[in-house]
Amino acid sequence: MTAADLxxxxxxxxxxxxxxxxxxxxxxxxxDGGIRCQREDGGHGHRHGGGTVRxxxxxxxxxxxxxxxxxxxALPAGRLAAWCPGCHHGALAAARKQQRTTAHATEPDALxxx
Length: 114
What we know:
Mean pLDDT: 85
Number of domains: 1
Oligomer: single chain
Structural class: alpha+beta
Distance between the termini: 55 Å
C-alpha cells in the first residue's frame, strides 16, 4: 500500500472529517449525536487566516502520537485517524505534557536518595 493509498483509506474511514472529539483540548460543537471537530478535508478554516483545510493521517492514540516518525509510518490504517492540523497540534502538545507529567511523577528524587 502506498502512502497515498493509506491516507485515502484513513480519510474514507473517517468520512474525510477530523475525528477529534476534544483530545486537542478544545471544545467542539455537538452534532450527529456526538461532539466532533467540524473541519473537513478541502473545506475552509475559519480561524488563523482561514485557507483550505488539509487533513493528515496520524496516530489515533495519544501515546502513539509520540512515536518516532519511522514507527508512525509503520502503523496500520486501523491505528491512524484523520486530523486537522489544529487538532493534531493540540493533541500532540497534550500528549507531550502528559508524558512530562508522568515522567516527573515516576522519577526518583536522586538528591535525597540515600
